[in-house]
Mechanosensitive ion channel family protein (Aeromicrobium terrae), 289 residues
Amino acid sequence: MPSLDVNLPDVDWGPPVAALVRIAIIIVVGIVVRWLANRAIDRIVARASVINHDRPTSGERRQQRAQTIGSLLKSVTTVVIVAIVFVTALDQVNYNIAPIIASAGIVGVALGFGAQNLVKDYLNGVFMILEDQYGVGDVVDLGEASGTVESVGLRVTRLRDVNGTVWYVRNGEVLRAGNSSQNWARTVLDITVAYDSDLDQVQQILQEEAESMYADQRFHDVIIEEPEVWGVERFDRDGVVVRVVLKTAPLQQWLVARTMRQRIKARFDAVGIRIPTSFIPGPDLGGEA
């Protein structure tokens, strides 16, 4: 009768099991480190985005900046931790990681050349947010487009102009940014009067109307400094241009300008000061009798 004894090879399960245990520990440590890092970032963001109730607009702006930077930090932290865990785990199974590192370097260089515009957009977006060049609610001029900022991302800024058109501007294409909403603004009015007008009287009226607005309780928090009449600015074809300026709160310069124009027009009509207009005669449609 044949024997049923089979000689099984002796297998040492020690090293593979130990390697798997070490890999599991590495993964767990990576998860814990990522959780701790994200928790620390959340605390920093929460502390940085506390809204000042005296200046709610600036608080919302700071909150958005903090949240955007926090999201960026979380993404970078996750990528770095995953890369470290992956390379360390491969090393535990005695896999030669040198080719992987070299390949990663080559892929990085290739992506750098192929997606340099994308990288440029993201880098510019990071610096715009860090430097607080503009935020949601600001009125800005970005060269190709201007309007109110509705969203600031790491790659694209979204604007809405006065006509309601939405513009998407790549951050890498922003070479200059004019912000009409930071800290304070200025209303600059150039008032044209006829050449036969009494300039002293004109400047006195402008000063009185500007000071009257400054003293008005409705504009107490709008006009933040005493207005100034800078005097004769230039001579135009239609008349003499006199300039008056008022320092205002951000985004209030247009309201002050409209109100000042209405007041000045009423005062000029009352005292008989003429605001000249260019008249272009049309064709004579009556013909000769």
Observations:
- Residues 132-179 form a domain with the SH3 type barrels. fold (CATH 2.30.30.60).
